[in-house]
Every structure is written in structure tokens, then in C-alpha cells.
Write a structure and sequence with these properties.
Cyt_P450_sf, 534 residues, mitochondrion, three-stranded antiparallel β-sheet, 20 helices, alpha+beta, four-stranded mixed β-sheet
Length: 534
């Protein structure tokens, strides 16, 4: 196909794109896509619409315009202007970006038996600098597979989940007690609070400490330990400094942005120091006497004797650092959406009450009877995905949107763009957990935890923690918000911040709130005599 044909194809795609993103009804937009005549010939890789040919000029413009913090919006605009597929060069990265579910399906079919996703050079550079092992988040190939299979049994399998559910349930109950104590200090019987930091402490206490190490940190006490707060600050700094370093070669980042790099290294050093202390305590206790009952994931891995202590340590650190904020944010955004959609909140609470009426049951069975609550979490992750893309390197040549994509090309599925597209979801701006309950085709539309063998290993941990938290909170409180306005968000790798610079009320990773207010600030009310509200 000649140049004229390629230009016509790109123009047609741009025309389709404008229709898709114009806010027209989903039905008509979908029809536009479906009725486009198939191209007679697969177009070459070089013909894919692009956001700029020079990778370093593009990176400089990103830096100058502070586009990293608005990466989710930048990707939306690129899809609007360039169509459902585009190529982007940023520094060392050259990627293909798509957002439609059928393109995601095509990509995952080509991921191979050893799936690879985009690495994080800054994290790997720290491990090399400190002579530390990498966990499965940073590993690829056979080493990744062997470690992943061992960890699967304790972290993501149904059998493993049944063992750690009681730990998560205990911490969720303690968080409700923590809130009750705060409310009792207020004669009005209600509490208006920015829950972000409290949720951070909750997730660190539960999933990241009690479940992993089998010990409590005391973060839900009146005066948490100073070292725990230092760890929280280190995780925040690590995430905040990751994004600016994402597209720069390790050898360059240490000099071009030396201060940023040093902050990043110091944050990881603090995280490792905290984890080292926990791991050594547990290892010493384990050597004295092996536990006779379940006492956390690390103890189970030590009992199995299938991984070296250094490998266990590397993976415990990644699980600890990688899952605190990425669970706290979705919880905060879920509370925000339930607060500004009281009818949804009431329906979820009624579902919980119906489950309670069945009497005491095993926790896994209780959670299986709460589909609307699970739908609420899915809906939050649709609107506020913790990671805005899922990446793979296909192991074979493939065709996406009638363009040839060579094997080994970095391909990204934009979750933020997918979740807010009227082509993919009817009334995407509406918070509607019931959209996940019907028999409609939801294949490859819920990818917040990834897909396949390389999906997030902490998925069951995160889902169970969020479900139990919401179950206990909604059983005891009504959640309100000081503002129902959409929250303006900026992206910070795996977290979201407010435009004024404070951490947003967040959501799975990116949200907004009026300047000068707390992103979510839900108010918690008890009914008369301390009973849950009607």
C-alpha cells in the first residue's frame, strides 16, 4: 500500500476515534467500529500512528510539561487523536498502546509460557547497587517461573487464601474498633476524617505484616511505633520517585537526576532495613521452634524449604512494598464512590445483612455470597486502576488493529482509557457495580490485576482484604463525603495525588479532589445506641 493509502487509513482511524471519544451513545460508537471495512492488506509496523518520532525530544517535552503526572490523560488524548492504536517513543522505551478488550485478548494470546512485562530499571539498579536478590516482580525467564510456582501455593491459591483469611478478618475488625474509638471522642456520634493515612496503616498492618510475617505492628493503636511511620514514608517516597526515573537508563539517571536517584535509593534502603528486621525476628523464632499452626506466608515458605532465605527475603520485600498503597487507594476511592452514591451503598449494606442472617459461616463462603460488594470493588478499579497499563512483550509476530507488530515489541493495554471508554462500557462515567453481575460479555475488561500466569500474585490477598474491610465498615457505619464533585487526580506510578501536591483521596491510582480539601474525607456515622445506621 502506498503512502496515500496509509494516510487514508490513519485519517479514517482518527475519524473513528473522534466518534468513539465524543461522548455519543455507546451503541452508535460501537457500530462505527464494527462497520469499518477490513483493510485488504496488513499494514506495516512503521505505519502505526505515532505521538512523535524522536524518543528523547518526546521525553524532554514530557518533563517540561510535567506530563508524567497526567500520563493517564495524555494516553486518552492520544487515543482520541490517533485512533485505537498508537506508537510512543519515550527515552529508552518504544511501545505500542491499545485499549480495546479484543486487542488485549490478542496480546495475551501471544505472551508465551514465560510472559514478560516492562521492567523497572531504577528498582533493578538498586538491587545491583546493594547486591540484593530480585523477587518475581523484577525477574523474567525460568528463574521467574520457578519462584512464581513456589509462591503461588501460599499467596494466590484458594488453599493458601483459606489459611490467611482469618488474619485479614481480625485486622478488619480491629480497624472498625479503631474508628469506634475515634467516634466516641466526638459527642455527635460521627467522624469527619481523611482516611488515607488510616487506610495505609490498615493495609500495612494486615496484608503486609500479619499475613506475610505473622506478627502485628500495632499501627491501629493510639500511638503507633515511630519505625512503622518511617516505613510508610519510605514506601511513599519510593513510589513518588519511581515515575520520573522510569524512562531513563540507569547509568544516566544517577547523574542527570542525582538528587532524585539518591532519594530513591534511600527509600529502598529504609524498606529493606524494615523488612530485614522483621525477617530476622521470624527466622530466629523459626529456628528455635517451628510453628505448630499457621503463622503467615513467610513461615510456610521456610517450612517448604524450596527457596533460599535470600529469595524469600526478596519476595517478601516486594510483597510488602508493592501492596500497601495499591490497596489503600482502591479502598479510599470505593468509600468515596459509595459515599456519593448512597443508593449503591445501601444495596451493598443490605447484601451484607442478608449474608449475616445466614448465621456463622466459613469466611470464604461468606465472601462468595457478596457479589455486589465484589462488583463495587471491580467498578472502582475500572475507574481508578492502580496501574494504568498492563504490558507484555509478545513472543511471536501478531496483528493489532490491522497493523503488523513484531515479536518482542513492548505492548501496553491502557486500563484507564478502557475503563472510561463508551465503546467498552455503557455510561462509563456512572458508578454501577451491577454491570459486573449480569451475563454480558466482560472478557478482558477487568484487568486491574493483570492476566494469566503473570497476573498480580497478591491478587487474592488484595481482593480478600478489600472485601473484608468493606464488609465490616459498612456493617457498622454509614459513609458520607464532604463533596460529591469528581476528584481531580494526578498519576504517581502506583498511586494518585491531588493537584495541590497532597496525596489524593485516591483510588486505585489517580483521582481528584477540590483544592485544599481531602480527596475523600468520608464521614462515618453510627446509628442510635451505637448500632449501624438503617
Amino acid at each position: 500500500m502506498g503512502a496515500h493509502g496509509r494516510l487514508s487509513s490513519q485519517a479514517a482511524r482518527r475519524s473513528i476515534s473522534r466518534t468513539l471519544w465524543s461522548g455519543q451513545p455507546c451503541r452508535s460508537a460501537a457500530t462505527v467500529v464494527a462497520t469499518q471495512p477490513a483493510a485488504s492488506k496488513v499494514l506495516p509496523f512503521e505505519a502505526i500512528p505515532h505521538s512523535g518520532h524522536n524518543a528523547w525530544i518526546n521525553l524532554f517535552q514530557f518533563w517540561r510539561s510535567n506530563s508524567f503526572q497526567n500520563l493517564h490523560h495524555v494516553m486518552q488524548r492520544n487515543f482520541q487523536n490517533l485512533g485505537p492504536i498508537y506508537r510512543e517513543k519515550l527515552g529508552t522505551h518504544d511501545s505500542i498502546n491499545v485499549f480495546l478488550p479484543h486487542d488485549a485478548a490478542q496480546l495475551f494470546r501471544a505472551e508465551g509460557t514465560l510472559p514478560r512485562r516492562m521492567g523497572i530499571d531504577a528498582w533493578t539498579a538498586h538491587r545491583e547497587l546493594r547486591n540484593q536478590n530480585c523477587g518475581i516482580f523484577l525477574l523474567n525467564g525460568e528463574k521467574w517461573l520457578s519462584d512464581r510456582l513456589i509462591l503461588n501455593k501460599e499467596v494466590i491459591s484458594l488453599m493458601g487464601a483459606r489459611k490467611f483469611l482469618p488474619f485479614l478478618d481480625t485486622v478488619a475488625e480491629d480497624f472498625v474498633d479503631f474508628l469506634h474509638r475515634q467516634i466516641r471522642k466526638n459527642s455527635r456520634g460521627s467522624l469527619t476524617v481523611d482516611l488515607y493515612h488510616d487506610l495505609f496503616r490498615f493495609t500495612l498492618e494486615g496484608k503486609r505484616h500479619y499475613v506475610l510475617y505473622g506478627e502485628r505492628l500495632g499501627l491501629l493503636e493510639e500511638r503507633p511505633r515511630p519505625e512503622s511511620q518511617q516505613f510508610i514514608e519510605a514506601v511513599e517516597t519510593m513510589l513518588k520517585t519511581t515515575l520520573p526515573l522510569l524512562f531513563i537508563p540507569p547509568g544516566v539517571m544517577r547523574w542527570v537526576h542525582r538528587g532524585l536517584w539518591l532519594d530513591h535509593v534511600a527509600a529502598w534502603d529504609a524498606i529493606f532495613k524494615h523488612a530485614d528486621r522483621c525477617i530476622q525476628n521470624i527466622y530466629q523464632e523459626f529456628c528455635v521452634a517451628q510453628p505448630c499452626k499457621y503463622s503467615g506466608i513467610m513461615s510456610e515458605l521456610l517450612l517448604q524449604e524450596e527457596m533460599s532465605l535470600d529469595c524469600i527475603k526478596a519476595n517478601m520485600i516486594e510483597l510488602t512494598a508493592g501492596g500497601v498503597e495499591t490497596t489503600a487507594m482502591p479502598l479510599l476511592f470505593t468509600l468515596f464512590e459509595l459515599a456519593r452514591n448512597p443508593q449503591v451503598q445501601a444495596a451493598v449494606r443490605e447484601e451484607i445483612r442478608r449474608a449475616d442472617a445466614l448465621g456463622p459461616q466459613e469466611l470464604s463462603k461468606v465472601l462468595s455470597g457478596l457479589p455486589l460488594l465484589k462488583g463495587a470493588i471491580k467498578e472502582t478499579l475500572r475507574l481508578y486502576p492502580v496501574g494504568i497499563t498492563v504490558q507484555r512483550y509478545p513472543v511471536r509476530d501478531m496483528v493489532l488493529q490491522n497493523y503488523h507488530v513484531p515479536a518482542g515489541t513492548l505492548c501496553q493495554v491502557s486500563l484507564y482509557s478502557m475503563g472510561r471508554s463508551p465503546v467498552v462500557f455503557r455510561n462509563p462515567e456512572r458508578y454501577d457495580p451491577t454491570r459486573w453481575l449480569g451475563k454480558q460479555d466482560n472478557g478482558f475488561k477487568a484487568l486491574a490485576f493483570g492476566f494469566g500466569a503473570r497476573q498480580c500474585i497478591g491478587r487474592r490477598l488484595a481482593e480478600a482484604e478489600m472485601q473484608l474491610f468493606l464488609m465490616h465498615v459498612l456493617r457498622n457505619f454509614r459513609v458520607d463525603t464532604v463533596s460529591k464533585a469528581d476528584i481531580k487526580t494526578v498519576y504517581s506510578f502506583a498511586a494518585w495525588r491531588g493537584e495541590a501536591g497532597g496525596w489524593l483521596p485516591p483510588s486505585t491510582p489517580s483521582q481528584e479532589i477540590p483544592q485544599g480539601t481531602v480527596p475523600c474525607c468520608p464521614g462515618l456515622d453510627r446509628g442510635p445506641w451505637g448500632e449501624p445506621p438503617p
